[in-house]
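Notebook entry, structure prediction.
Reason for the run: the old model in the group folder had no record of what sequence produced it. Starting over properly, with the input documented here first.
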Amino acid sequence: MKAYFIRRLLLVIPTLIGITLLVFTISRFAPGGPYEAALQAATSGGQEGGSKGSGDDKGGNLSEDQKELLEEQYSLDKILIVAYGQWLGVAPKEDLISKQEFGGKSFVKGYDRKTEARFILRTVDRLVSVKINRKSENEAELVSFKYLDGAGDPVADGWTIRIESPQDRKERWARRENSTAAECPNQYDYRAVAFKNRFSGLIQGDLGRSFVYGDSVVSLIADRVPISLYFGLLSTIIIYTVCIPLGVFKAIKHGSIGDNLSSVSIFVGYAIPGYALGAILVVFLGARLGMFPIFGLTSENFSDMSTWGQIKDVAHHTVLPLICFVIGGFAFLTMMMKNNLMENLSSDYVRTAMAKGVTFRRAVTKHAFRNSFIPIATGLGGLITLFVSGSMLIERVFDIQGFGLLQFQAVQAVDIDVIMGTLTISALLMLLGNILSDVIVAFVDPRIKFN
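New structure, fully documented this time:
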């Protein structure tokens, strides 16, 4: 059995890679995202400026350098597999990029710009010289890359130099404009690109930065997870504490008035979606009657309250959303417990135990209950995902800034880094939860062997 669980743990890595690669591919080709958002903002600015009499409809459009900067920021200038490797942290990212076109304008005079480019490296503010030997219109070799002051070596300092040919730049334009290189209207020359390689991705604990919030994805998730974990733990404790004894009661008292009334109650609750119930509670108990807060998890003056006051305030804000979280889980778990227990109570081994003098109470608690709990135990591992993911719709209704709402807002805004970060956490927890379910089942029923 140990070998089985080791294999399952090892399979988590390739499975997670497959899931994230699939979503990364879809998100890369899906419309929207930070690049398109910046273009739309610039276009809107240009149109607004034109309406005010500027006479230039494209005055607000991004320049080609700005477009390239956005591409480099989100790895859109790289092919899919390289961009995914950079997000994963196994391929280096180009950082501190500095560029200079050969033959172009420069603030430094007195040299042949056709074969030499001089520019300042970012962050170090040192002037460098890059010389090339032009072999043809689209082929050149690097001759030298050095500091002009002669002190030190940029390569030894971690800098890398790349020479882009006019054809390379046309192909990059074609990828960006969804066109062909032959249709590029721009005339390019060779360009020197200096940068430092930096490994920064999932493996290094860097999930990127949200273009909507401006914060790192790691910090956003760290702020949201405790809130969803709070509601996940509370709802799970309440559901299992109530539903398992209720299921046992319904199995033992099957057909009684208590069984029938409880069945009607839990199925009515099951038929009402949590977010729909939340909207009703917010309107009637919150807005109209003023019995409960209608949004958030704390009051505005929360920091000024005493410790006991803060506890009461959080509890007051928790009541309505917690009702919505637990309402749908009652019916499924209660009826599963009842049906499993009734099936086991009618089994031969229970009747044999009672024929040998075992009391009915002991037959239920020592024999039938444990076997009835096995199907329920298979879903316990999945609670890890529930603890963290929460419910995006319920959190949206009550404006609770939890992990579920973060996922929802990221998808709405096509915030790629946040989508990938939250998906990675959810997928990892799901995979680990499945393994944990097997562990729990093996613990509950020693007869089960995994090979």
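Summary: The domain at 217-444 is CATH 1.10.3720.10 (MetI-like fold).
The old model has been moved to the deprecated folder.
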